């Protein structure tokens, strides 16, 4: 018992760092999101008119692409934190993984919902069981599974190990999502930003998209730090209460 | 007014574009507010417990 309490002892250095970083990440998130939203939704040109172009529906891109990018990035963070917890027994690993996965679940849900709205108009279908969509749906369920496991036990340490293993096994899904558009026939358009020939998107749209992606990233780091603080406070409260009971 | 009307129309795709943008704003706002409130509650709980324990040690 004392060893387990010791593992959560004194995360003071992390908390100090979190407190110092949070105002900056929050301010950067607000600035990037404001610029990206106004530029992308109000100023950037629409796509070419249908049928060859996508008209005004391309504006969905400014929330769909950052959400999808974050859904993958947050999962990589959950997996890295889980690896730190399980391999190096880093005391913050479980805390950071647990704090991040609800945020990732929100991004995965937004990716699916905004993509569905976009597809409904451009493909004439709200949903198709193709590789890209299905693998993102699996990512969403991986997040839900991770959240469920971390909350399944009264003692957080018990669910934590199972959650770590789920998170690490699920990493195999990340390259599947990324390359699904190359490996299988799909309605989803192929990679159009990071590719060998350079971005396929007009610079007028790429610039606001860049701000949105930065904004989403800083938003994630802000909420992550905040949720990690809450988790650490809850753990410390729990440890103090246990010590009170023991004495 | 006409300019705003045309902007809101989104080239006839208003029913797809605005729900996508609105849902994203809603989900991110709710997550942020819930996280802020939860952090405040947990930290207040801890501070109260630490204060009580501190008094206990002195007495």
Can you describe this structure in just a few lines?
Chain A has 247 residues and is mainly alpha-helical. Chain A has helices at residues 2-7, 12-43, 61-87, 91-122, 131-150, 156-169, 173-183, 203-246. In chain A, helix 3 (61-87) packs antiparallel against helix 4, helix 4 (91-122) runs antiparallel to helix 5 and helix 4 packs antiparallel against helix 8 (203-246).
List strands and helices in order, with pairings.
The complex is a heterodimer of chains A (247) and B (59).
Chain A lengths: L1 H6 L4 H32 L17 H27 L3 H32 L8 H20 L5 H14 L3 H11 L19 H44 L1
Chain B lengths: L1 H8 L4 H45 L1
Description:
The complex is a heterodimer of chains A (247) and B (59). Chain A is mainly α. Chain A has one domain. Chain A has 8 helices and no strands. In chain A, helix 3 packs across helix 5. By secondary structure, chain B is mainly α. Chain B has one domain. Chain B is built from 2 helices and no strands. Chain B is rod-shaped. Chain B starts with a helix and ends with a helix. The mean pLDDT of chain B is 87. At the A-B interface, helix 3, helix 4 and helix 8 of A face helix 2 of B.
List its salient traits.
heterodimer, A: 247 residues, mainly alpha, B: 59 residues
Order of helices and strands of chain B: HH
* Major sheet size, sense and barrel closure of chain A: none
- Over all CA atoms, what is the radius of gyration of chain B? 23 Å
Report the average pLDDT across residues of chain A.
88
